Amino acid sequence: MNAGVNLLIDDVYLAEIRRDMIKFAHLQLRDEAQAEDVVQEALVAALDNTREFAGRSAVKTWIFAILKNKIVDLIRLQVRTTNVSALSAEEESCLKHLPANTARVFMMREFLEFETAEVCQELSLTTSNCNVILHRARNGLRRCLESNWFSAGEQPC
Questions:
Q1: C-alpha span between 143 and 137 (Å, rounded)
Q2: How far is CA 67 from CA 7, 43, 63, 83, 102, in A?
Q3: pLDDT of 129-152, one tens digit each?
């Protein structure tokens, strides 16, 4: 077993990464039970495939890649919509301020790396409508970041 993957056995590390995975999965799926299930599947897959970890990235990055793929697989199987913008009160973010459908389209395209055609098919959107939604999402996020995160006139890197 790779030395970096041995960290998975450490209870403290495992608890921390699991907590972060649950937050990420819940943001994507908006369903606590599904988030728990997909995180469990990702952790089991990581533990079952420790020999495949090549060490070219951090263990956490590798595990989150597995989680992302599990989430994408689950979303592709579902027909229902996910309300990404309905974040819990303690999880402030600029995504929270976007309309629910806009946030979902943005998350599917940019975070889950769906192709635009896949987002359109999954959400029954035309390509031009999807592009308009993505444009509005990026503008809304830019405005939010500029007003809440960066000083007046300061540009992000």
A1: 10
A2: 17, 8, 6, 19, 23
A3: 999 999 999 999 888 888 876 655
Residue showing tokens 């908006």: 30
Query: Taking 70 as the threshold, does the pLDDT of residue 42 lie above it?
Result: yes
Rounded mean pLDDT, 9-17: 82
Residue position matching structure tokens 């540009």: 155
Could you give all domains of the chain from N- to C-terminal order, each with its CATH number?
1-80 (1.10.1740.10), 82-157 (1.10.10.10)
CB contact at 8 A, 64 and 39: no
Which residues are CB-neighbours of 107 under 8 A, at least 6 positions away? 27, 28, 84, 95
pLDDT (average), residues 105-119: 86
Q: Report the distance separating Cα 106 and Cα 125, nearest Å.
A: 13
pTM equals 0.53
